Amino acid sequence: MLRRRAVLGTALALPTLAQAQTPTWPERPLRWVVGYPPGGPSDTYARLIASFITPRLGQTMLVENRPGGGAVLASETVSRSAPDGYTLLHADNGNLVYNPALYARLPYDPDRDLTGVGFIGRFPLFLVVRPDSPIDSFAAYTKQASPPTYGSPAVASPHHLAMEMLKRRAGFDATHVPYRGGPAAMQDLLGGTLDSVLIDCATGIPFLRDGKARALVVLSEARSAQAPTVPTALELGIGQAVAFGWQSMHAPAGTPPAVIERLNQDLRAAVASDAMQERMRGLGIESAPWTPAALNDFVAKENGVWRPLIRELGIRLDS
To answer: Which family does this protein fall into (predicted)?
Structure first.
């Protein structure tokens, strides 16, 4: 009987001993993969956030740039990584929502292979013209004798798709001119090559603040604190015309919930820090302290809005 109790006691103790010997996460540096080149907005914010998260984790969060193909390479890299919390994706509208509609074949499935960690921020979008433009309102913009031209940072960017949505909601026409980045489009606007640009707040607010551009409408639920005189589409009688560029942190599907929750808490703390909030507010970027579940719900809703529109427009990036 004593031997049986001894054996049973040893067996019962094994899980506790195993748990005690399991390394505490994280025990080595983390990789945060960004699908865009160094120096751009995504890279800049990822590095800033990583600098806040690193001391909280007690391990270095390394930002790794893997640009190319609408962040396809970065997304594939993370989706094929072990779901252990050591490889993360800097995600956005493009690699989570748009790509499945833009490419006939993708080496990853964002709905199946990735899961939300936390939200970084969203970038309100403005339709802007030159200060001396004869177009003095959004109503005037929609009634031009010939379709005005509008620039965007790229084909199938949030800016491009938001403008196409706005055209359908408000019933007007405009001709798209894609650029390689928002700053290039803004320079051509100021030079008189373009009639307008659909631009995000991070790029556009400095131009508005300096009087180098004038906004006709913001595609947000509420006016921007950085441009409070600019009306929303809803104020102008255009329903369901809300669009943002946004960024998030995602992980491979199957990452342990405890790791996801720890990362979510540290990401939220980083975004809520005074230094980060000051920088974001100055550019009109809006944050939200979402849980992983709330982020996943948000992405699912975005899928239902933008993928059908992309298919309706017939935009493909692999043809």
So the answer is: Belongs to the UPF0065 (bug) family.
At CA 307, angle to CA 297 and CA 68, rounded to 5? Answer: 95
Same fold, 30-122+245-313 and 124-218: yes
Q: Over the chain, what is the mean pLDDT? A: 91
CATH code of domain 30-122+245-313 = 3.40.190.150
* DSSP state for residue 9 in the 8-state scheme: H
Give Cβ neighbours of residue 202 (< 8 Å, ≥ 6 apart). 41, 123, 283, 284, 285
Domain ranges of the chain: 30-122+245-313, 124-218
> What does the buried/exposed string (b/e) look like for 235-274 if buried means 16 or more CB atoms within 10 Å of the residue's CB?
eeebeebbbbbbbbbbbbeebeeebbebbbebbbebbeee
User: 45-58: string of b/e by CB count within 10 Å (b at 16+)?
Assistant: bbbbbbebbbeebe
The pLDDT profile of the chain, 319 residues, written as one tens digit per residue, is 434 444 444 444 444 433 333 368 999 999 999 998 888 778 888 999 999 999 999 999 999 999 987 899 999 999 999 999 999 999 999 999 999 999 999 999 999 999 999 999 999 999 999 999 999 999 999 999 999 999 999 999 999 999 999 999 999 999 999 998 899 999 999 999 999 999 999 899 999 999 999 999 999 999 999 999 999 999 999 988 999 999 999 999 999 999 999 999 999 999 999 988 998 888 888 999 999 999 999 999 999 999 999 999 999 988 6
Contact 115, 300 (CB under 8 A): no
Strand 244-252 relative to strand 87-92: parallel, antiparallel, unpaired? antiparallel
Using an 8 Å Cβ cutoff, are 245 and 159 in contact? yes
Q: Which two tokens stand for residue 39?
A: 């120096």
CATH tag, 124-218: 3.40.190.10
CB distance 69 to 247 below 8 Å: no
